[in-house]
Design goal:
The complex is a heterodimer of chains A (289) and B (346). Chain A has 289 residues and is mainly alpha-helical. The radius of gyration of chain A is 23 Å and the shape is globular. In chain B, strand 6, helix 6 and strand 7 form a beta-alpha-beta unit. Chain B is of the alpha/beta class. Chain B is globular, with a radius of gyration of 22 Å. A 5-stranded mixed sheet of chain B has the order 2-1-3-10-4. In chain B, strands 7-6-8-5-9 form a 5-stranded mixed sheet, with helices on both faces. Classes of the chains: A mainly alpha (289), B alpha/beta (346). Chains A and B meet through helix 4, helix 7 and helix 8 of A and helix 7 of B.
């Protein structure tokens, strides 16, 4: 597992290098074209200076504030998403009535409801957390619901003939089968969550990365803008990596069972014991036990 | 040290004696002034919502905060930065006690039914203007604008009316030109990339911001064309009539302390700028310093005291809006939209 994480990080490093290289190429190209991007895209040296100047504030104030809102919002969104998906799976009328409402919830621009959110929740973390929840819960709900609906009926029938109650069927068959979808939704939600917290600050107030970004943009500090963007992006990548790690630990059976090109590639480097990876997928076994 | 030097030092000392006396007198006067009878008996928390990210238009509030002027009035002030919420809306709904707006947009909000009252003009003169990059388009007079592409902020009725009126004063019949809606993207950046030719900017921030970045602008300041387009207050300090009715003492205490903050910004722009940068470290210090120096004489301008509003200014610009069919005649009660009652010397 640790090796996989190291590999994953190596992959992220390679991706970062490719991105940096591409950005540099674009700059060189635009320089040749006579359109100078220097004032729009800061150099890494400028970023380093901006980081040195504001490191204490970012690490001490702005980043913790954004992280707190992100994590609380994400936790609520995942819980709510799972709950809604479950309810909609159990009660078809709820599915028909709630689905359109959920879609509508995704189409409301935040500034249109900003004052309402402030009136309801004040200027603290409340409105920001609500924005994160709004940004994130939908992906969890729809993905989980798809997973619950798409479970192989033969498993359900099998357990039912063994006399399992609907609740037991849900707990032992449907939910485990929906977990890969659920994690897919959580991964999407996590990707949105940090930017949700940043936009949430535009609604309420508070001292987070969004405020840092906005103040910097509005006093023409391009280097600080890109620094903030890099930090926000870095935080998103880190959180998604954590979700992926959790997923790998939770769905061990799924990952160990796979013999895709990617796992073979990983095995080649990690020299994982072949017998272990050849083990039969244990999904059915778990269901029966 | 020879005798000559000694005598020089001595004479400097004797000279400074009256200066010292004067200083003591001034300090005494200031500390008397600090005992403002508008101070509240009970500790009160209020919120102020800005119109934009913190900039030198707001220096007085940050000074009043940092130098303890609000504290002396028994006020706890929280300064909020908006983005998705208009200050007029926040003030009108009562989620904040005070807000910063602009005469034109507050007028629109009031006409739409918002409850806001202007209690101080933060800057006497309109510091906005139409600007182009000097190297691309020299603006000698408004006539030069006729053929250029304008980068606007989604308010063409008002923006075109401004340009139309400026050109009409030059004897040019112009209805509308190349209007490109750029929202709130940095217009200077768009101009330097030839996406637009000119834009309507706040000189004290965006104009000086360009200068700090070594971009030379050619600017037509609206204050230079006050004969053509009547002066109006931008920005202004807002509260609601409900707040004035319910808690006039609090409104008075806040306005007094704020006025002191601006008086400090007028007298010591360098120190005031340092206070702003200290409070909002993301700002560009050079820009804040130069902007503070530019604004210092303009906050109060020719008015008897900082913040004072003249009914002629409100009436003149309202007539302009009516003439250009942006608002209906009689839609705004000019006497009810502002008051000088809460300023220190009333």
């Amino acid at each position: 597992m640790l090796r996989r994480i190291v590999l994953w990080l190596m992959g992220a490093g390679v991706a970062a290098l490719v991105l940096a290289g591409t950005a540099q190429l674009a700059r060189e190209w635009s320089a040749v074209q006579g359109d100078d991007l220097q004032s729009l895209v800061p150099t890494s040296a400028q970023l380093a200076v901006a980081w040195d100047t504001h490191r204490a504030d970012i690490l001490g104030v702005y980043l913790p504030n954004t992280l707190r809102v992100t994590l609380i919002g994400l936790a609520i969104a995942i819980t709510l998403g799972l709950l809604l998906a479950t309810l909609m799976d159990f009660f078809p009328p709820l599915r028909w009535t709630l689905y359109p409402v959920l879609i509508v919830s995704q189409t409301v621009p935040t500034f249109a409801i900003a004052v309402i959110l402030i009136l309801l929740f004040g200027f603290g973390d409340g409105p920001k957390i609500i924005v994160v929840v709004l940004f994130c819960f939908f992906a969890v709900t729809t993905n989980t619901l798809d997973g619950l609906r798409g479970v192989d009926q033969t498993y359900v029938d099998l357990v039912r003939t063994m006399g399992a109650s609907p609740l037991a069927i849900w707990w032992k068959v449907r939910l485990p089968a929906a977990l890969p979808n659920f994690f897919g939704g959580v991964r999407l939600a996590t990707t949105y969550s940090v930017v949700g917290a940043v936009i949430g600050e535009y609604v309420g107030s508070g001292e987070g990365m969004g405020k840092f970004l906005q103040r910097s943009y509005r006093s023409f500090q391009t280097d600080q803008v890109f620094l903030a963007v890099a930090i926000i992006a870095g935080l998103s990548v880190l959180l998604v990596a954590l979700v992926t790690l959790t997923e790998m630990l939770t769905l061990r059976w799924r990952y160990i069972g796979q013999t895709t090109r990617i796992t073979r590639f990983i095995q080649f480097f990690t020299q994982t014991d072949a017998r272990q990876t050849r083990r039969v997928p244990s999904q059915t076994k778990e269901v029966i036990s | 040290m020879n005798l000559q030097n000694l005598s020089a030092v001595f004479s400097r000392w004797t000279l400074s004696l009256p200066v010292c006396a004067l200083l003591i007198a001034v300090v005494g006067a200031v500390s008397v002034q600090a005992q403002d009878d508008a101070a509240l008996a009970e500790r009160t928390s209020v919120k102020l919502m800005l119109d934009f990210s913190p900039n030198t238009n707001h220096t007085g509030f940050y000074v009043a905060q940092a130098n303890g002027y609000y504290d002396e009035m028994n006020l706890d002030v929280e300064i909020l930065e908006p983005a998705d919420v208009a200050a007029e809306q926040a003030v009108s709904t009562g989620v904040v006690e005070f807000g910063i707006g602009f005469q034109e947009f507050s007028t629109f909000a009031i006409v739409d039914g918002a409850d806001v009252v202007s209690i101080a003009a933060i800057i006497q003169e309109n510091t906005s203007g139409f600007a182009a990059i000097a190297a691309d388009n020299m603006l000698e007079s408004p006539a030069d604008l006729a053929e250029l592409t304008y980068g606007g902020f989604s308010f063409p009725s008002l923006e075109n009316a401004m340009i139309r009126e400026l050109l009409a004063c030059e004897g040019i019949d112009w209805d509308s030109g190349n209007y490109l809606d750029v929202g709130f993207a940095d217009p200077i950046e768009l101009m330097s990339r030839d996406r637009i030719d000119y834009s309507w900017i706040f000189y004290a921030w965006q104009g000086i911001g360009a200068e700090v970045r070594d971009i030379e602008l050619s600017t037509l300041l609206l204050s230079d064309y006050a004969d053509c387009i009547p002066n109006y207050y931008t920005p202004i300090l807002l509260t609601s009539s409900e707040m004035i009715d319910e808690n006039p003492d609090m409104v008075r205490a806040f306005t007094h302390a704020t006025a002191r903050g601006y008086e400090f910004a007028i007298e010591s722009p360098e120190d005031a700028a340092a206070v702003l940068v200290e409070a909002v470290p993301q700002l560009d210090e050079t820009l804040v310093q130069e902007s503070a120096a530019w604004l210092a004489p303009r906050y109060q301008g020719e008015a008897a005291q900082w913040g004072e509003q003249d009914i002629a200014v409100w009436q003149g610009f309202t007539d302009f809006l009516v003439d250009n069919e942006i608002i209906e005649a009689g839609a705004l009660d000019v006497e009810a939209v502002f008051t000088n009652d809460f300023l220190p010397e009333q």
